[in-house]
Every structure is written in structure tokens, then in C-alpha cells.
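QA checklist item 7 of 12: single-chain prediction sanity check.
[x] sequence parsed
[x] length recorded as 189
[x] structure emitted
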Amino acid sequence: MVKYGLDYTRCRWILPLLLGIGVIFGIIALAGRGWLESQTLPYVQQASLWESCSRPFQGGEWTCESLMDYAWGRAAAATYLVGFILLVICFALAIIAFAIDTLRFNFIRGIGGLLFVAAVFSIMGLVIYPVKFSTEIEMTGINMFSWAYGFGWTTAIMEICLGFFFCCLPNYEDQILGNVKPTYFYSSP
């Protein structure tokens, strides 16, 4: 973005766009029912961040139990939700920061720090969930942590990577704003 001719005015919305994609992935993880699923037939287990559902056999009726009845379920949901809310706040702050003509680079570094805090909360929720789920809830058959859980991890990884970008961007303030004179390596004899 800095060195090879990508103009700041053309590329200024890449980081907020990536944050927006992270928000969408977080919504999918929060709403998805695929945190844990049966891997093979008969499909008798399915769980989300909020509830665990099972059925006795393939054509049977699903019976669901709320994970909010468990302290670890509330802790996993709360920490992941706090991380998601911080991500949404960072997205709003990034829109504001990049919409202003004179970019405040210290403000951008603060967004990066807040993204690291969001990643810590998200990872806490993503670690609490499988550890306690597999020890507290009786599972039948072969189960796997599935697509919605993967979207949760993708969101956490995006928070970490974007945190680095937002923290390192102020180091290239002069190059981004075009305040550096070009260096020519050719000298006339």
C-alpha cells in the first residue's frame, strides 16, 4: 500500500472494508448452529454458542438444552460477545477515522490496540467453549467443531492481523500522505 504506487486516496478504505468482513464473520459465528455437529450418520448432535440439540436417531425429534444454564456457557457467550462488540466499535471508529480528510494516526493506533483487546476476548470464548463442552455435555457418536466455530476463529485471527496493520500504519505516515521527497539513484556525470 505504501511503496509501489498504490495511492492513499484509492486504498484508504481497505482496512475498514476488512473490518466489515470481520463483523460479518462474527455475525455468522454468533447466529450459526454449526459450532458442533455430528461428523457421520446418524446425525444426532448439533450445537451453537447458545444451545445444544440432540436426537436419539436419524429421523427422531430434536431436543434442545440451553447452554446458558451452565456457568461456562454464559462465560463463553459473554466473552465472545464482548469481543464482537469491540470489533463493531472498531469498525465504526475506522469508518470515522478514514472519512476525515486529515487522518489522525494516533487515533488509528488506538483502534489497533482495541482490536487486540477484542481478539483476547474472542479467543477466551473460543477456548472456553470446546474445553467445557466436551467435558460437561454427553456427546454421542463422532462429533466435530464445525463451520460456525471456524467463522469465530476466522474473526479472531482477522482481529489480530488487522490490529497489527492499524498499529503499524502510523509508522508510514509521511509516505502515505506524500510528504517524502522521491529518492533518485541516478546522478549525472
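[x] summary fact logged: The CA atoms of residues 42 and 59 lie 9 Å apart.
[ ] second reviewer sign-off
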